[in-house]
Design goal:
With 180 residues, the chain is α+β, with helices and mostly antiparallel strands. It contains ten helices and five strands; from the N terminus they run H-H-H-H-E-E-H-H-H-E-H-H-E-E-H. Strands 3-5-4 form a three-stranded antiparallel sheet. The protein has a two-stranded antiparallel sheet with strand order 1-2. The model has no long low-confidence stretch (mean pLDDT 88). This is Transcriptional regulator, HxlR family.
Length: 180
């Protein structure tokens, strides 16, 4: 999967949980997916509309009521759902809030090897300095990212690497996401 698509998917908080639950076999009806994800109705609908727009999910023709449609994964959505399921499997329940944040997973995907700030920013082209900095600080506070100062260079530069749960998620996403 290309990093641009991955960033696009993670831009909606409930997109990956929806994909993971569809992959796990939860029926593609709104009520069952709402119950499984725990999302609010408005956020769920926005995430589902987003997944339909980018072509990962489609309405299941001939099934469901117009007010209670049924959904299914597209061919492209199957691979994205598999990745979402793997991420969901290696993370804990208390980690779900952090995983739903926009830049958490793309930053971890970029940290498949130790990187400098500018290298991460280059991998995730649309990210701003502020968003990247806040994401790295949040991940460092959770002990998913380790920041080391390289004092041999002038000026000294920070090098970031994924550790503990962040490392596991980074391995899963790093093997599935390609950077250009």
């Amino acid at each position: 999967m290309y990093i641009g698509l991955f960033v696009n998917i993670t831009s909606r908080a409930w997109a990956l949980p929806i994909l993971a639950h569809l992959h796990a076999g939860i029926p593609g009806r709104q009520a069952s997916l709402l119950a499984a994800t725990g999302a609010g109705r408005t956020a769920f609908v926005q995430s589902m509309d987003h997944l339909i727009t980018i072509g990962l999910v489609e309405r299941n023709p001939g099934h469901g009521h117009p007010l209670r449609p049924e959904f299914r994964l597209t061919q492209m959505g199957i691979s994205a759902a598999k990745l979402a399921s793997q991420i969901n499997r290696v993370s804990k329940e208390e980690d779900q809030g952090l995983l739903r944040r926009s830049w958490t997973l793309p930053v971890l995907a970029s940290l498949h090897t130790p990187r400098h700030f500018i290298e991460i920013k280059r991998d995730l082209a649309p990210i701003t300095d502020r968003a990247l900095s806040q994401s790295l600080k949040t991940l460092e506070a959770r002990n998913w990212v380790c920041r080391q100062i390289d004092e041999l260079t002038r000026p000294p530069r920070s090098r970031y690497s994924a550790v503990s749960t962040g490392s596991i998620i980074s391995e899963v996403t790093g093997s599935a996401v390609t950077f250009i």
